[in-house]
Amino acid sequence: MATEKNPFEQMRPAAENIIQLGAQQEQPQTGDPTFELEDDGGLTVDFSSTEENTEMGASTEIGEWYGNLAENLDQDLLEDIGNDVYDNFVADKDSRSEWESMFERGFDLLGLKIQDTTEPFEGACTAVHPLLIESAVKFQSKASQELFPSKGPVKAQILGKVTPEKEIQANRVQDFMNYQVTEQMPEYFDEFERMLFHLPSIGSAFKKLYYDATVKRPKSEFIPIDQFYVSYYATDLSNADRYTHVIYRSPVEIQRDIRAGVYEDVELSSPSSDVGTSFSEKMDTIIGLSPTSGHDPQYVLLEQHCYLNIEDEDEACPYIVTVEQQSRQVLSIRRNYKQDDPNKEKVNHFVHYRFVPGFGFYGLGLIHFLGNLTMSATAAMRSLIDAGQFANLPGGFKAKGVRMVGDNEPIAPGEFKEVEATGIDLSKAIVPLPYKEPSSTLFQMLNFVATAGQKFADSTEQVISDAASYGPVGTTMALLEASSKFFSAIHKRLHKSQKDEFRILARIDYDYLPAEYPYDVPYEDRSIFKQDFDGRVDIIPVSDPNIPSNAHRMMMANMALQMAQQSPPGMFNLEELNRTILNAANMPNVDQILPPKIE
């Protein structure tokens, strides 16, 4: 914990700065020069240590505790562990094979692939109703705006009694973690948005936060659902006996990890070019991608978080075991509990985001809720389009003796062509099939199905667009709250999961930050201290789980403004109320428009 200097403290006497060369010196602190007394009586002063260690890294104690235990274990034991990890992974994968196949069929309802078909006839309509993809993209946009504002998504909250020292500490933690997720971890926002697109469609998405020894900083990674497997009886990550993260590494990346000490240097088999799953192959087919055969070989690593008894403990303890899938070679075994934890509780590196909690471990998504409605809307829309096509370009039968002069191209509007009828009445020689115009009943049914699906996914926009016709603000607020119940509940789940994610990041900072870590922001130099993450400050998302949108926030602010205008002067703080309204409207330069009072 940094100590604030007292400006009224007296200067130390000059005599205290004298260095006794013959006396034993204390170990210099970080940033102090070192002194070495030579044999000839000379003094060497080393100023190289005056610079702070600006890299994150594991201390000697943490490095030894979380070190690779596979280097010291018997080879037969490692083979048994490797086989068990692989067998458990295959069992977990087979237990949800039908679950994955359902999504493979549901991905066709996203309508991301442009295609032609010959069934049931050449040129039939292949359009897919955008109900499912529209709901997913709208959710992604709304959630991204709320959970990741431009100033950063992290907010610090003081635990216990508020003191000036804790307030300064909370400000340091908040500023540094916002700097981390916006600047130091450039992949965070991209991975977060990828997660927000998969989440509404599938119902479950996973984020992983860990310290990467190769880049000397924390990393955030979105884990697709086909790269994360959980045991069948698990209901939550905290009580799961095991879960496996499937990692793909190129030969260059695996060698870099070995040099950094992440994995043991063992002899591996050749990487494979065929590492995809049916799940990933279906997604590639939809968006038109295919792996390049023989050009991008990959190693498949199984990182399994499980329980083992390999250190003569009374009970099995949590470990992280990484195995190369093809050769079943164990690359690393690391402890997954804190050194000072008597209960040996598992340390979690993953965060499970759920759209709607389901009947088991995995959540329910829009494919579950709107899949059948999208299929019905797609069938009705295709029927209407095909009926309109046949009504505009009808076909039929003509007598054998009737011959068209010239080519047999369709007749353009206003064009007359000659025929050879040989005395046959054309009205009897040419019989068009009785194609009907697009059915108005079917069109109404399409509107009903689409409206029902959109109302289920999100009806807030309709309330906002019709707000002027509802009358008083209270009525609009009630309608807005009722229409946003579905997203509000999802937003609270996202808020909770994001809080878990930030707590994992804070734990990584506490373990790997140096005593003082300076960093630069525009127009200012700042520092964060390792002891700032001592648990006295709680890290939470800046989003409000009770107010899921700016529209809701603006309605509440306007209601408060109306009450302030009707109340006696002095009852409301109008300056703070106006500041709240401007912030809800995302007004830039609020501090210049309403400068804060100097206390």
Structural account:
The chain has a five-stranded antiparallel beta sheet. A hairpin with a 5-residue loop joins strand 1 and strand 2. The protein contains 17 helices and 20 strands. The chain has 599 residues and is α+β, with helices and mostly antiparallel strands. Helix 4 packs across helix 9, helix 9 runs antiparallel to helix 11 and helix 15 packs antiparallel against helix 16. It is globular and about 130 Å long.
Task: Record keyword descriptors for this entry.
599 residues; alpha+beta; five-stranded antiparallel sheet; disordered N terminus
Q: Which term fits the overall shape?
A: globular
Low-confidence stretches: 1-31, 48-52
Mean pLDDT: 81
Relative strand content: 15-25%
What percentage of residues falls in helices of 4 or more residues? 25-40%
Q: Kindly, what is the distance between the CA atoms of the first and last residues, rounded to a whole number of angstroms? A: 27 Å
Number of strands: 20
Radius of gyration: 33 Å
Helix count, DSSP H or I runs of 4 or more residues? 17
Alpha-beta classification: alpha+beta
Strand order in the largest sheet: 6-7-8-9-10
- Major sheet characteristics: 5 strands, antiparallel
